[in-house]
Amino acid sequence: MTDLNKLRVFLEVARTGSFSKAADRLGIPASRVSRNISELEADLGTILLLRTTRRVSLTEPGSQLLEMTGKSVEALDQGINSFLTFDRAARGTLRVATSVSFAMSFLPEILFRYGERCPDVRVDVATTHQNVNLISETMDIAIRMGEPVNSNMTYRKIGQIKQGLFAAPAYCKSREFSSPDDLYNARFIAHRARMNREVLDLSLSNGRDRTSLKRVPTMIVDDPAIAERVAISGAGIAFLSHDLAAESIRRGLLQPVLPQWSGPPVSVYYLVHRGTAKVTKVEEFLKSAREVMSKRAVE
Q: Contact at 8 Å (CB) between 271 and 156?
């Protein structure tokens, strides 16, 4: 089969009537233009161009080839260029998978920024506490808490989440919490990911001292956002991110328990397909996510 690039070179020579002009327009050396024409003529078994010291003219087979293929190759090139432009543009649908708690805490601001950058992109968000297979579930991006294990995707850290203990004011009213020892008889609402077998296993620090908190929880839920709702009801203490609890604290529905003690920060990672990490609609979402996470860290 004839190399399409050789045909493109021939069409440029035929239209310009010059090897050197064709080379300039194609951005390649004149020697390559001459070689491509010779190879094309050998492939087709005919002479396409007559070369003199002053000009280049088409033979009858050359004129036929120009007439039969010129518009088709031009249309093909236009289609490819249009596709490349479309691929670089931020449009279409972006599918994002994340947890309910991250969606509630960070996604509104991320999507606001992203909407300003990419107004033509439709965003489809799937919330789940389970790890998502990007390929089988046709997702573009997944956001996860903690470093992914054995992932064959591209993943990067985009921020950290500060965590602490929170409960409803009504639950704390008749109880005194001044040190981790006071938590011994407290009721806990546990996020399943924090469980070590049947025990809630937390590490707390006040900057000087560190203690390990191991308790059998009263309730176990699948997502911190659910734990927050249960804690608001007064059912016990939940270990939550400060970002997730912030609005409920502002409204007086939750308050910190042992505010001077906190858990280790949890790193947030994004995962993308290796082949789509540089697609504009994906790049712009990740840029928005990094900005929001960085801003929250500074605050």
A: no
CATH code assigned to 92-160+266-298: 3.40.190.10
The CATH 3.40.190.10 portion of the chain extends over: 92-160+266-298
| Under-70 pLDDT residues of the chain | 1-2, 53, 80-89, 129-137, 149-152, 274-275, 277, 297-299
> CATH top-level class for 162-265?
alpha beta
Of 169, 194, 171, the closest CA to residue 183 belongs to 171
Task: Give pLDDT, residue 114.
Answer: 93
CATH number of 4-88: 1.10.10.10
Token pair, residue 9, equals 């070179």
pTM of the model as a whole? 0.62
Dihedral of CA atoms 46, 49, 50, 56 in degrees, nearest 10, equals: 180
pLDDT value at residue 192 = 82
- pLDDT tens digit sequence for 154-180: 788 888 889 999 999 999 988 888 888
Note the pLDDT of residue 135.
Answer: 47
CB-neighbour burial class of residue 234 (10 A; exposed 0-12, middle 13-18, buried 19+): middle
> Rounded CA gap, 30 and 119, in Å?
45
Any long-range contacts for 176-183 (C-beta under 8 Å, 24+ apart)?
Answer: 177/257, 177/258, 178/258, 179/258, 180/204, 180/211, 180/213, 180/258, 180/261, 182/258, 183/213, 183/215, 183/237, 183/257, 183/258
